[in-house]
């Protein structure tokens, strides 16, 4: 198991942000819960209540009911629809990292001389740089053994010595995790070679090839500018380095200007590009099976550097090849334009605001004033799927027109890229990549145009009566609910749009009793606790933009439905994933969810009838994630959305339904007509919410 480093954030002397170092991600279930560095931005917590009900009988599962709501959107007058049993016949189926270094209060002084793992003896000279974990110094060889007097290689007169203190979080389990990665990647195209490593006193020391300035240094020393040709050459060569790294099964995980170094000045390698700092590298390909690693999302886990991280990394998705390329795209635009649109955010929710801005910035806006190839590159990489193989050769060829035709006089050595283009050309039986004829046109995301919509989810059920009401004002709620109850229907979901309610009532809930309350609070604790005392549990809730809420609490039938054994809810200013994660470990599952304005309300219950649960959270409808989860047996069981984000909870039911069909719809108006079409196919609304869907 890889050890990963972790620590707390601190500012660097370098004005650029350093990576955030998260604590270990908890293991939720057997599948691929790898150690991660996580960011800890605890949301403002307001409620965390538990109802401990004594022994309600548990039988079969009750469908979990949910609702969500948001403001905005054009809505018309109140509507109602009903599917009766006789409608369609009855035969149908239904950071910054903290290094052990001098300024951080780690008292251990660096040794004056270093000799580790059979290396020559080195005298420590000037400092080359410092990151969140390590500090890097020049080591000058003073022993005379094994020397041929030349620079470079294991016998070099000057080497780079990377020190990590043994108490640094990255060394919790022994030597730094980065060492393992260097074992595989050290010395491949664009990665410096590590010659010796070992522990000396309080420090783990890695002896590596000495390199020159970073791209950030070059940009900084050149009045915060860099020529288009230089950046295009960097693009070309960096893509080829990433291709090589990826071909070895790794993603770098922290691509940024500070981690690209040039060779030492005055040497034949001074124009050669290297990528360093492999402390966040992870495998995208499983070593033994050769398969792509499993897709996961842990919305409170962040790895990398906020400014350059991919949107997927912000959202806690498993790192894959696309993330390095997206970070490279931001690196290039930064070097070219001197600034990225999401710089300058501060405060506890900086990560959220930066990610939101990244999602809201179209490639056109990001690359305004940049030559066309940069925009095309951004467009390609932000549209890559989780396990999609990037077309590296094609990306490289985008920059052909921006760099000079003679590779020998380019500001950056592009040998690696030329080799790659040549190899791919050979493989394909042609020399260059003009095409791609075989590429399907893709639906573009991140158009910089946010939209809010209804998200409705439909499950296959045996024919039953279901009824919906939408655009319901507060005062009309009671009469609809009473009428429904008279007809033998209970509320299964609620939602809100523009301070009006949507109400789904049906005959298939399995409830035996139900109460509800419309309250000006999100949520009304006293009332909920009173009902908990009477063994009612929250079965659906919705919040309006004005802060009011509609909470529905129900009792289940023991012979037909599961009665929750315990329930807990939380209201918070950001999506409370940390809390959800904690509750998962205590045996709770999300059973209802809603939003009021930008606040989230999440209800979790024990004995919920699920064997596993995941969350998909995004700044748009997370289509790719949902399809992946569907393929692995999850079904959406709760939805909610704010104006910024949509969250979908997907669960594996303990009892598999006879028909697992589930469909979703996104519509700008309440899907009144669509619902009828779904009913005709015995698909019934299982969840509905209104909020952010596309951008
Ligand atoms: N081989 C090298 N030759 C010259 N300078 C180097 C070398 N390796 C690292 N440096 C310098 O030291 C700095 C810190 O190194 P590195 O990024 O590996 O440390 P880190 O603590 O893992 O950093 P981070 O906080 O980015 O994770 C680099 O930005 C670079 O300036």
From TrEMBL:
Gene Ontology molecular function, alphabetical: ATP binding; protein serine/threonine kinase activity
Stretches assigned to the Protein kinase domain: 122-409
Positions with biased composition (Basic and acidic residues): 1-13
Biased composition regions of type Basic residues, renumbered to the chain: 26-37
The enzyme's E.C. designation: 2.7.11.1
Short name of one Pfam family: Pkinase
This protein's UniProt keywords: Kinase, Transferase
InterPro entries assigned to the protein according to its UniProt record, in alphabetical order: CK1_Ser-Thr_kinase, DUF7477, Kinase-like_dom_sf, Prot_kinase_dom, Ser/Thr_kinase_AS
Ranges for region Disordered: 1-57
Enzyme class: transferase
Family membership noted in the UniProt record: Belongs to the protein kinase superfamily. CK1 Ser/Thr protein kinase family. Casein kinase I subfamily.
Protein name (record): non-specific serine/threonine protein kinase
